[in-house]
Specification:
Elements (H helix, E strand, L loop, with lengths): L3 E3 L15 E3 L23 H11 L6 E8 L2 H11 L7 E3 L4 E2 L1 H18 L10 E7 L6 H16 L5 E6 L6 E7 L12 H17 L21 H8 L5 H15 L7 H25 L4 H16 L6 H34 L4
Helix pairs in contact: 2-3, 4-5, 7-10, 8-9
Length: 357
């Protein structure tokens, strides 16, 4: 019987452990994964699967990366992207049917089929995508064969029933990774339009496939690790590397500088929400630690200690605005110290010129 996943939005109580996805089968009600939200009446109750997940989190198992890198919106763009991921045909690609597509000639049939299907799709808007490009990656040192096998299994389970796709593994980078290009239009006539919950579900699935192959892997949202700031976009990082100030940085500094100069601090609702969310997440970890401490098993006591240490080591709750405020305050203090030092030097020199009595 075919299966498909349906991501469910996370709530605050589900951050530890986070909800990944639920399975749906035809004519059946969806059921949640075993390690999903515990009984609200006993929030610290741990199932065996939840305990295993908690172990991976506090012992900092390597985090998977599943990222949408872009979309192709024309046949020429698709051909260019396929040429890029296959290194102009030097690397073999693999299709959803398990067929190896070798060289440039191996991709011609796939390109032509996707092009023909796009031409027959009378509902497709001019700006809609032909394909979605995804990268699946693990930290340096991870077994490359296991990464490729896990990516293959992930693609089959996630897209194989409804979407054509092709993937290629790259080994010329220290991080073993796979480029996966999925045709947007599904066999059911619907277009692939992944949301934030889908990406988390995909991360959980990829991590699960890696663990099945003996690779320690986890897929926790950054908030469960105490990190509240989003990673900067690649374009922003590239501009900073070229010593160009991105508009997002310039505008943020201008706003914070205006607040500092006016001796006022604007209050934002999301700052309080972030803080309260982090407080709740950390309390939940400590609830789990208390539950483990009540166990009669020595291993649970050790895990409880590790959980408490994990919470203690969590970074301070700091947004990008908080960081800029700290930087500007430190800069202002540094300048005041420099001015005071200059004045002090001037007074010392004046005294040195005075005649002695």
């Amino acid at each position: 019987m075919s299966r498909r996943y349906s991501p469910r939005p996370t709530d605050l109580a589900s951050d530890l452990p986070p909800i990944s996805y639920v399975w749906e089968t035809p004519n059946r009600r969806p059921r949640r994964a075993e390690w999903d939200v515990p009984d609200p009446a006993a929030p610290a109750r741990l199932t065996q699967a939840m305990r295993a997940k908690l172990e991976r989190i506090v012992r900092r198992a390597p985090e998977v990366m599943v990222k949408i890198t872009g979309r192709t919106k024309s046949v020429a763009h698709l051909k260019s992207h396929l040429a890029y991921i296959t290194r102009n045909g030097e690397l073999d690609a693999e299709s959803e049917q398990g067929v190896t597509l070798a060289g440039r000639s191996g991709l011609k049939d796939l390109q032509q089929r996707w092009e023909d299907d796009a031409g027959l799709d009378d509902k497709r808007r001019r700006d809609s995508s032909l394909s979605i490009n995804i990268i699946l990656s693990m930290p340096a040192g991870t077994d490359a064969v296991a990464v490729k096998d896990s990516a293959r299994a992930f693609a089959i389970e996630t897209f194989g029933y409804n979407h054509d796709y092709v993937f290629v593994q790259h080994l010329d980078d220290k991080h073993p990774h796979v480029h996966l290009t999925v045709r947007s239009l599904g066999h059911d006539g619907k277009r692939l339009n992944p949301r934030k919950a889908d990406l988390q579900a995909w991360r959980e699935r990829f991590a699960g496939e890696l663990r099945l192959r003996g690779i320690a892997a986890e897929a926790t949202p950054r908030r469960t690790r105490g990190r509240v700031r989003k990673a900067d976009r690649g374009a922003v990082l590239a501009m900073r590397k070229r010593k160009i100030t991105p508009d997002v940085d310039r505008l943020a500094r201008k706003e914070v500088l205006s607040e500092v100069r006016g001796s006022r601090t604007a209050k934002h609702a999301w700052d309080e929400l972030i803080k309260s969310s982090q407080d709740a997440i950390r309390r939940r970890y400590l609830d789990y630690a208390a539950e483990l401490q009540r166990s009669e098993v020595a291993a649970d006591h050790e895990l409880a200690r590790q959980v408490r240490q994990f919470v203690e080591d969590m970074p301070a709750v700091e947004t990008r605005r908080n960081e800029l405020q700290s930087q500007l305050s430190e800069l202002a203090s540094s300048r005041r110290r420099d001015v005071q030092d200059v004045h002090a030097d001037g007074r010392d020199k004046t005294r040195g010129d005075e005649p002695t009595r």
